[in-house]
Amino acid sequence: MANKLKPVSVWALAAGGMVGGGIYTVLGVVIAVSAQWSWLSFAFVGLLAITSAYSYVFLSNKFKESGGAFAFIEEVENKDLAGSLSWMLILGYVLTISVYAYAFGHYVSFAFHGGPLITRLLAAGIVIALIALNLAGVGKMTKVEITIVTVNLLVLLALGVYGLTQWEPAQLVSGIEPRPAWAGLFGGAAIFMAYEGFQLLSYEYDRIKDPEKNFMPVLISATIFVVLLYIIVALGATFIGGAISLIDFKEIALSVAAKKSFGTAGVVVMTVAAGFATSAAINSTLFSTAQLSRRIADDKELPQWFSHKNSNGVPGRAIILIGAIAGLLAVIGSLSALVEAASLVFVVTFGIVNFICYKERDTKKWIPMVGVVIAGITLVALLFRVIISKPVAFGGLVLIVLLIQFGRPKLLKNQQKSAK
Question: Where, subcellularly, is it found (predicted)?
């Protein structure tokens, strides 16, 4: 029982999983799309996050196992969909790690007046360091993560609340054209990946103390808190920094706001908070993704190559491959493209999980149904935005999906023949 996660730990890890890289990376992106309606963007897709948290907990408690969406789909006996979605989930986590590494590089580089080369080296370096940490068998450091989360939440809350005391609505459109209210929908769709981190707790279900009693209220309250925090920070930081400044420096939007509020001291505090928060988010996501890959391989939905464990008992090959691809994307990718691609994966995943919950639930079916509807609306908005603004990136993502859908069965079949 000593190793079980108590409610406070679960709450902190859930909130930290979302906030760890979320608000640091997406604030400038959402302001560029939604301007004065950025707070509405966070609120709208926040409803999808809340209903999805409900669905994840219900299904975890019903099936009484770790594994998240992959396990849920297997339980409802749709093995082909489980396999395809698991590959898409791994892709989503790789993109998420790359976004966090991208943010780490930019925030730390800004503090030391580094150029593009330093920024790229920092992004690659943090991924390499955390790959090494995970290979050494010390990738999961729950107490350290909880400490980082606590400091991170306090810093963000302080900045947001201070910004609200400087109430100045004109700053929400300072230097840019006001947007119509429906822009809030497109902004929320573009940055939905900022909410995905809570689902990592579904992979830790076996470690949660008395999950049938604690998991639901803890995860729901953590998700609601993060939704409110994002709204507060979105408004407060923009009141301080002004819309155009946060857009022009979207990679380091919160450092810009902190500098305008508290000068060099603000930059130092925000850099430390961002650096540790994004590092913890990379570490947690890398660890969980590698473990998920091993489980999927054990179920023969990934090549057995991913099942291999090193001398420290960790899936070393998966850690190296996942980390290497994420590090490369962090170096060569653009922030908005990475964020939107990751958001697309998780909107689809959460929509499916809400639908499964709707089918499995006998009462309160309206909760997952709300999630299904919001996921559908968000998906349409995001597809429309990506097709119009990033047709090449969209084409690449479609190609990957087709390869997964049609190439995965053939690859696994060939592997089974080779094993015989």
Answer: Cell membrane
Tokens of residue 294, six digits: 């091993």
Of residues 109 and 197, more confidently modeled: 109
Quick one: what percent of the chain has pLDDT higher than 70? 96
Question: Considering the chain, what is the average pLDDT of its residues?
Answer: 89
Within 10 A of 263 (CB to CB), how many other CB atoms are there? Answer: 10
Measured CA to CA, the distance from residue 352 to residue 78 in angstroms comes to 12
Determine the Cα–Cα distance for residues 305 and 162; give it in Å rounded to an integer.
51
29, 236 Cβ separation under 8 angstroms: no
Nearest to 33 by CA among 253, 217, 203, 180: 180
Q: What is the reported pTM?
A: 0.91
Tell which residue, 359, 360, 258, 267, has the closest CA to residue 27.
Answer: 258
What is the CATH code for 7-413?
1.20.1740.10
Tokens of 77: 């006996």
User: Of the candidates 329, 350, 327, which has an alpha carbon nearest to the alpha carbon of residue 339?
Assistant: 329
Report how far residue 194's alpha carbon sits from residue 93's, in angstroms, rounded to the nearest whole number.
Answer: 12
C-alpha to C-alpha distance for 389 and 391, rounded to whole angstroms = 6
- Of 34-38, 74-78, 255-259, the poorest mean pLDDT is in 74-78
* Residue 67 DSSP one-character state: -
Q: What is the DSSP letter of 77?
A: T
Q: Look at residue 141 and tell me whether its pLDDT is greater than 70.
A: no
Nearest to 340 by CA among 272, 387, 276, 407: 387
- What pLDDT score does 416 carry? 62
Helical pair 22-34 and 335-360, crossing angle rounded to 10 deg: 100
The greatest distance separating any two alpha carbons of the chain, rounded to the nearest whole angstrom, comes to 69
The residues spanned by each domain of the chain are 7-413
Give which of 324, 311, 322 is closest to 135, Cα–Cα.
311
Task: Give 264's contacts (C-beta < 8 A, 6+ positions apart).
Answer: none
Distance CA 282, CA 296 (A): 21
| 395: β partners | none
Q: What is the mean pLDDT of residues 159-177?
A: 94
Residue 378: which residues within 8 A CB-CB, separation 6 or more?
A: 44, 45, 48, 185, 188, 189, 192, 347
Closest by CA position to 52, among listed 296, 348, 281, 292: 348
Q: Please give the pLDDT value at position 337.
A: 83
